[in-house]
Amino acid sequence: MFLEPRILYAERGEVDTSLKMELGKARVLQTGTDITVVSLGNMVNVARDAIKESGISAELIDLATLVPWDRETVLASVKKTGRLVVVEESPWSGGWGSEIISYVTGAAFSALKSAPFRITAPDVPVPYNGTLEARYVPTVPNVAAALSKAVSSNEVPQPWWITEGLSK
């Protein structure tokens, strides 16, 4: 089963036909030393832009597939950076990022400098209206602020939708 992000339908550009993707093999899109950022689909673009905006040295991993997912690549990165954040479009409850964090915490606990965390959508129904949907998913400023706080303080930031007063 393939889940494609509708929000990417409007994207235009050249397709690299030489690119071959192996199922279960993540791609390290950017190397860094401060934090590991794991994402999938359109949130990879959001995470990439947020890393640039925040100015931190982050390793960006595009999982590419969830089942199977590339444990080795993620673990190696977390052991290098000591921090992990998962950026996903899923709602807070039941998102795939919980599985990534659970596995990494069990397999590399001693390597962690701070608690891993997720940047997600709130626990509300996904709005159908495009303008409202854009407010539902994590944005570049939300992700950049969370990454900066995590690296500078080793604290888990409040979810963006709580700090903006959208949900409790």
CATH architecture: 3-Layer(aba) Sandwich
Count of the domains: 1
Radius of gyration: 15 Å
Main structural class: alpha/beta
- Main beta-sheet annotation: 5 strands, mixed
Assign an overall shape: globular
Strand arrangement, major sheet: 1-3-2-4-5
Q: Secondary-structure element sequence?
A: EEHEHEHEHHH
Helical residues, percent: 25-40%
In angstroms, what separates the terminal alpha carbons?
33 Å
Mean pLDDT: 90
Helix count from the secondary structure assignment: 6
**How many beta-strand elements?**
5
Q: What are the low-pLDDT stretches, counting only 5+ consecutive residues below 50?
A: none
> What's the CATH topology label?
Rossmann fold
CATH class: Alpha Beta
Strand content: 15-25%
Description:
The chain is α/β, with parallel strands linked by helices and 168 residues long. The protein has one domain: Rossmann fold (3-Layer(aba) Sandwich), CATH 3.40.50. It is 36% helix and 16% strand. The protein contains 6 helices and 5 strands. The protein has helices spanning 42-54, 71-81, 97-108, 130-136, 140-153, 160-163, and strands at residues 27-30, 35-39, 58-62, 84-91, 117-121. It has a 5-stranded mixed β-sheet with strand order 1-3-2-4-5, with helices on both faces. Helix 1 (42-54) crosses helix 5 (140-153) and helix 2 (71-81) packs across helix 3. The longest helix has 14 residues, at 140-153. It is globular, with a radius of gyration of 15 Å. The termini are far apart. The model has no long low-confidence stretch (mean pLDDT 90). InterPro entries: Transketo_C/PFOR_II, Transketolase_C. Residues 24-143 form the Transketolase C-terminal domain. GO terms for molecular function: oxidoreductase activity. Its cofactor is thiamine diphosphate.
